[in-house]
Specification:
About 0% of the residues lie in helices and about 30% in strands. By secondary structure, it is mainly beta. It has one domain. Strands 1-3-2 form a three-stranded antiparallel sheet, with no helix packed on it. The chain has a two-stranded antiparallel ribbon with strand order 4-5. Strand 2 and strand 3 form a beta hairpin. The chain is elongated, with a radius of gyration of 12 Å. The model has no long low-confidence stretch (mean pLDDT about 95). The structure holds iron/sulfur cluster (SF4). Iron/sulfur cluster binds next to loops. The site of iron/sulfur cluster (SF4) has 12 residues, from loops.
């Protein structure tokens, strides 16, 4: 389904998230980013905590 409320400031490729837009943007106004590691050193160490399963 094509979305009309993509946020061009937040690129995201996580298709499994309910906030994902097929144009590879997020549809939320803001997102919360966090980490699951005590000492993050690279991108895979951080998470989008606004993720919600479709
Ligand atoms: S909430 Fe996070 S994971 Fe979901 S589409 Fe937006 S940026 Fe991507």
């Amino acid at each position: 389904m094509k979305c009309t409320n993509e946020n061009k400031s937040i690129r995201c490729s996580v298709e499994q998230c309910r906030h994902h837009c097929t144009t590879n943007f997020c549809t939320l106004d803001t997102v919360s980013i966090g980490t699951h590691e005590p000492n993050p050193t690279e991108p895979k160490c951080v998470d989008c905590n606004s993720f919600e399963k479709k």
